[in-house]
Amino acid sequence: MGLLDSFEKGLERAVNSAFAKTFRSGVQPVEIASALRSELDAKAAVVSRDRILAPNTFEVRLALADEERMRALGATLDDELHRLVDAHAASQGFSFAGPVTIDIRSDEQLSTGTVRVASRTAAGGLVTWRGVLEVNGKPHPLAKGRTVIGRGADADITISDSGASRRHAEVLWDGERAMVRDMGSTNGTKLDGHKITEARLAPDGVITIGRTALAFKVVAQAAPPRPPLPPDDATRVFDIGGRP
Questions:
Q1: Can you tell me the distance from the alpha carbon of 147 to that of 183, in angstroms, rounded to the nearest whole number?
Q2: Tens digit of pLDDT for each residue in 132-152?
Q3: pLDDT bracket for residue 238 (50, 70, 90)
Q4: Contacts from 174-183 at CB under 8 Å and sequence distance 24+?
Q5: Which long-range contacts (CB under 8 A, 24 or more apart) does 142-145 make?
Q6: Does residue 70 contact residue 104 with C-beta atoms inside 8 Å?
Q7: 172 with 145: CB under 8 angstroms?
Q8: Burial 210-220 (b: 16+ CB within 10 A, else e)
Q9: pTM listed for this prediction
Q10: Which of 66, 92, 201, 223 has the fewest Cβ atoms nearer than 10 Å?
């Protein structure tokens, strides 16, 4: 049984009091886990109809005495917190832009029994986006500019389909938005089942060329690392309420 398993039922209790209080007893591991779960739920953002992006970089601040007690638990606490964050994300259908990191540090301004959590998405707090075309389950990342699709060897994405022209269609990607354009093909190009000459390409849109379907995805990429999260107004404070 893991360090936090016996506390699972306690993870649902309220932890969002807006004011700091002082308690005789300190923070427990389950209370940190509960605060992390609350932070995941609060910051999760819908990217597309089948992708909900949640923060993956967390900074947990505790009073000095609480931080010392948590540090004494060593890698066991870190492993359990990661396990519970992963489990909660899986149960809610959340996905991450990169590896989950949880940094626990002391804050002299905090009272015993207070958990302060800040989070951001990806390793550096910013997310860059990459357009991808999936063909038969294989992803083809899009470079900025134009990507030509067709049966010819000179196409950027070559598909083996007798219904495709040598240079059949192109996708234009500027790093945030995409457009699909037919290049005067013999059999035409469809987007989500409708024949098009040129159209905006939304996330999860499906381009059909002959009998080949190409699904357009927008994937989050981690940006370069940044310094630790500052204690600003965006930081969420969880005042657990100790046991007497």
A1: 12
A2: 899 988 889 898 899 999 999
A3: low
A4: 174/144, 175/128, 175/129, 175/144, 176/129, 178/131, 178/142, 178/216, 180/205, 180/207, 180/216, 183/148, 183/150
A5: 142/171, 142/173, 142/178, 143/173, 144/173, 144/174, 144/175, 145/172, 145/173
A6: yes
A7: yes
A8: bebebebbbbb
A9: 0.47
A10: 92
